[in-house]
Write a structure and sequence with these properties.
Shape: globular
Number of helices: 4
Distance between the termini: 5 Å
Radius of gyration: 14 Å
Order of helices and strands: EEHEHEHEHE
Largest sheet: 6 strands, mixed
Number of strands: 6
Helix content: 25-40%
Strand content: 25-35%
Oligomer: single chain
């Protein structure tokens, strides 16, 4: 389920937000990392002027950690965060929220069941005149 939350009360720009931290938990997602990061790199410039992509490796035992590190070394917008042990979905989400550098934070699942572009309508809702603190999609 894609979600967005704002850490301040500043309204977002309707077209593109200024800064966005996007993350996804990844536990044994070696097959999904590269396509998801490629999708995010293609989509996020339309949604944010400045963005970061955080891969939260939640104690994976496959090639996920190595692929995450390679993607981070290849793309300056990408960072890999490793939990070391599997903390579960909630722990991975907490890790992603803590690691986010920007005041606006969005996440999707790492298994690619959601499209990164689905964040667009959520960001629009976040910029509405009533300025909600959190927007959750399903």
């Amino acid at each position: 389920m894609p979600s967005c939350t704002s850490r301040n009360t500043q309204p977002a720009a309707p077209s593109r937000v200024a800064r966005l931290s996007y993350f996804f938990p990844a536990h044994n997602e070696e097959a999904n990392l590269e396509p998801l990061v490629a999708e995010a790199l293609a989509t996020l410039p339309d949604l944010a002027e400045t963005f970061e992509i955080l891969i939260v490796d939640d104690g994976s035992r496959d090639a996920t950690p190595a692929i995450a590190d390679r993607l981070a070394a290849t793309h300056p917008e990408v960072r890999a965060v490793h939990t070391g042990t599997n903390l579960g979905y909630g722990g991975a989400l907490r890790t992603g929220f803590r690691a986010a550098r920007y005041e606006l934070v969005a996440f999707t699942d790492g298994d690619r069941q959601f499209r990164v572009a689905d964040l667009g309508p959520l960001l629009e809702r976040l910029a509405a005149p009533d300025r909600p603190d959190v927007v959750v999609g399903y």
